[in-house]
Amino acid sequence: DTGVSQNPRHKITKRGQNVTFRCDPISEHNRLYWYRQTLGQGPEFLTYFQNEAQLEKSRLLSDRFSAERPKGSFSTLEIQRTEQGDSAMYLCASSLEWVPSGNTIYFGEGSWLTVV
Amino acid sequence: KQEVTQIPAALSVPEGENLVLNCSFTDSAIYNLQWFRQDPGKGLTSLLLIQSSQREQTSGRLNASLDKSSGRSTLYIAASQPGDSATYLCAVREGSNYQLIWGAGTKLIIKP
């Protein structure tokens, strides 16, 4: 068990460019979450998957954001036409559960995005 | 709408002291509450998870309590060490919601 893995860890991009982040959850974890965090704030929920199905999306997730988990294993988060306000740390997390339960949610190290 | 508050936002104490971090939430209908640690520029490390039916959980020098009726949780750190310096966040999980609702964190500095 190598934990939740995210890459790249850091990304600097010019405004208007597209970026993609990848998350590899803990193996056999069926649930995968994406959060966004800015300095001095707690994480904000973006979306989550149960296996390959995207079950919930936050209103924070504008049309420029898209997330996939095609085979129920790794996930990608793509941001199109990046804006400076997209600068944040994007956190991925995973857990093993089928209904809301007491299982721990494990987070990755995050992917820092800076839009210049 | 659930709101989670952590006070104080920052805390600085000398090494060796015992300390308490506070977390309050507005809606007592929670599944569980989780405490996390975050080092600067890093992801989140889960410290303790308290189920809604539990009153406390312990791990090493850490003890977390939960009082649902008053909407409060505390994280007690015994014999603090400089390596405990980090931001500590609490998050609640609601019954009908798969999301975690987060506090903004308490930045803890342990002075050698």
Instruction: Name the chain pair with the biggest interface and residue counts per chain.
Output: A-B, 26 and 26 residues
The chain-level structural class of chain A is mainly beta
Radius of gyration of chain A, CA atoms, in whole angstroms: 13 Å
Strand content of chain A: over 45%
Number of strands of chain B: 11
- What share of residues of chain B is helical? under 10%
Describe this structure in words.
The complex is a heterodimer of chains A (116) and B (112). Chain A has 116 residues and is mainly β. Chain A has no helices and eleven strands. Chain B has 112 residues and is mostly beta strands. Helix content of chain B is 0%, strand content 58%. The chains are: A mainly beta (116), B mainly beta (112). Chain A binds chain B through residues 4, 6, 31, 35, 40-45, 48, 55-56, 91, 93, 100-102, 104-110, 112, and chain B through 4, 31-32, 34, 36, 41-46, 49, 51, 89, 91, 93, 95-100, 102-105.
Describe the protein's topology:
The complex is a heterodimer of chains A (116) and B (112).
Chain A: E1 5-7, E2 10-13, E3 19-24, E4 31-37, E5 44-50, E6 53-57, E7 65-68, E8 75-79, E9 88-95, E10 106-107, E11 111-115
Chain B: E1 4-5, E2 10-14, E3 19-25, E4 30-38, E5 44-51, E6 56-59, E7 62-67, E8 72-77, E9 86-94, E10 100-102, E11 106-111
Parallel strand pairs in B: 2-11
Antiparallel strand pairs in B: 1-3, 3-8, 4-5, 4-9, 6-7, 7-8, 9-10, 9-11
